[in-house]
Write a structure and sequence with these properties.
By secondary structure, the chain is an alpha/beta fold. The protein has helices spanning about 5-10, 50, 60-70, 85-95, 110-125, 145-150, 180-195, 215-230, 280-285, 305-320, 320-345, 370-385, 405-420, and strands spanning about 25-30, 35, 40-45, 100-105, 135-140, 170, 195-200, 205, 210-215, 230-235, 260-265, 275-280, 350-355, 355-360, 385, 395. The strands form four sheets. Strands 4-12-11-10-7-5-6 form a seven-stranded mixed β-sheet, sandwiched between helices. The protein has a four-stranded mixed β-sheet with strand order 1-2-3-15. It has a three-stranded antiparallel β-sheet with strand order 13-14-16, covered by helices on one side. It starts with a helix and ends in a 5-residue tail after the last helix. Bound molecules: pyridoxal-5'-phosphate. Pyridoxal-5'-phosphate (PLP) binds next to helix 5. GO terms for molecular function: 2 iron, 2 sulfur cluster binding; adenosylmethionine-8-amino-7-oxononanoate transaminase activity; dethiobiotin synthase activity; pyridoxal phosphate binding.
Length: about 425
């Protein structure tokens, strides 16, 4: 029996309709931006394996640091105990995080990083003796799959079975070009109404919504309004963190800084499952009390896993290297040139770019995640040896920074071919 068939007998995959899904692609090795399958095929990982991989697969430096940590200390309870990897990683994160962040709270993935931020925000107000009931979020956002994260995410097909179990959220429209004023008005009205604990947002790029982009200027305005009305702000940088938008964090484009930042995905360069929520001094201080009931009662068995923290430290070393920064600049430039070219083609509705993230939206009306077009485009990419996971009629690239110029050109060539598929020139 092949690996894929054995998988099919025992595994339930995420975001996969197991009844109709094709057998999964068995990947046995990765190197740089490439994935190698059991049957000898090679794929360019143009989506960095769900946006996590920064420096390429099986990176020797990260592997070495992870191995060293594994041989020294693999895990220890993180309540009442600590270890060098967690402390050093937190110190280094705080050096690069947006101004004002002063504490790191570790968790295990992006959803839990969001969950922690929401709990911090709600309890912050409880601890002050002025409980607040509402959270503001963007209508089309995606913040994860746990219940709190689902509550502040779009009421989409993904969350439909759970709607009646999710707490109520005040949604505002995403301030895409031309709609900025409307969103500002909506947020101002909510802020004036009071009772708002926090505003959570994906800064500059809403990933799962289809790499929807909006300007730093309007976000700056929204954060400023929140600050004027004493509303906590939570930047969900799970996708945008660690260079994706061209700067280390998307929040770096703003004058007004958030009270909390959620991190995961690129946090370990795509090597280990780790999440982190950073908090400002103001937030942290609200939890310091003689009254023990004001403690943040949250934690996971694997909180601050030393091996994950070692991977994070190694990834940070690589990120801050001059060569990586040059790669980020090169990818941005290459994207820009391609964006100009593809924008002019028929059936291309819009091309969006923010840093190393590029999205091409086709005109075809089939925008749904479940559309046939999505499946066709995905299969076409795989046939060309390029892993691209369309979001409905939107194709996006969010590559590992080590992707070569030639590999990126092959990804573009595949997207050109997709344009022909959409326009019916290619079957
Ligand atoms: N927040 C954002 C902005 C995301 O894009 C995601 C995942 O795509 C999450 C949170 C959830 O992260 P995870 O899948 O690690 O739980």
């Amino acid at each position: 029996m092949s690996l894929a068939e054995r998988d099919h007998n025992v595994i339930w995959h995420p975001y996969t309709q197991m009844k109709t899904a094709a057998l999964p692609v068995p990947i046995v090795r990765g190197e740089g931006a490439l994935l190698f399958s059991e049957d000898g095929r090679t794929y360019i990982d143009a989506v960095a394996s769900w946006w996590v991989n920064l420096h390429g697969h099986a990176h020797p430096y990260i592997a070495q640091k992870v191995a060293e940590q594994l041989h020294t200390l693999e895990h220890v309870i993180f309540a009442g105990f600590t270890h060098p990897a967690a402390v050093t990683f937190a110190e280094r994160l705080l050096q690069i995080l947006p101004r004002g962040q002063c504490r790191i709270f570790y968790s295990d993935n992006g959803s839990t990083a969001v969950e922690v931020a929401l709990k911090m925000a709600i309890q912050y107000w409880n601890n002050q003796g002025t409980p607040k009931k509402k959270i503001i979020a963007f209508r089309d956002s995606y913040h994860g799959d746990t219940f709190g994260a689902m509550a502040v995410s779009a009421r989409s097909a993904f969350t439909a079975p759970f709607w009646s179990f999710l707490f109520e959220v005040a949604f505002v429209d995403v301030p895409v070009s031309g709609k900025e004023e409307e969103t500002v008005k909506q947020l101002e009205a909510l802020a004036r109404g009071g009772d708002i604990a926090a505003f959570i947002y994906e800064p500059l790029v809403l990933g799962t919504a289809g790499m929807v982009m909006y300007s730093p200027q309007v976000l700056d305005q929204l954060v400023e309004i929140c600050q004027q009305h004493d509303i906590l702000t939570i930047a969900d940088e799970v996708m945008t963190g660690f260079g994706r938008t061209g700067r280390t964090f998307a929040s770096d484009y703003l004058q007004h800084k958030p009270d909390m930042v959620c991190l995961s995905k690129g946090l370990t360069g795509g090597t280990m499952a780790l999440g982190a929520t950073s908090a400002s001094e103001k937030v942290y201080q609200a939890f310091l009390h003689d009254d023990k009931s004001k403690t943040l009662f949250h934690g996971h068995s694997y909180t601050a896993n030393p091996v994950a923290c070692a991977a994070g430290l190694a990834s940070l070393d690589l990120l801050l290297k001059e060569e990586t920064q040059q790669d980020i600049a090169r990818i941005q430039q290459q994207h820009k040139t391609f964006a100009q070219e593809i924008q002019a083609l028929s059936h291309v509705k819009e091309v969006r770019q923010q840093g190393t993230i590029l999205a091409v939206e086709f005109e075809d009306g089939a925008t749904s995640y479940f559309s046939d077009l999505r499946d066709t485009l995905y299969s076409y990419g795989m046939d060309q040896g390029v892993l691209l996971r369309p979001l409905g009629n939107i194709i996006y690239i969010i590559p590992p920074y080590c992707i070569t110029k030639a590999q990126l050109e092959q990804v573009y060539q595949t997207i050109r071919g997709m344009q022909e598929v959409v326009s019916g020139q290619k079957q």
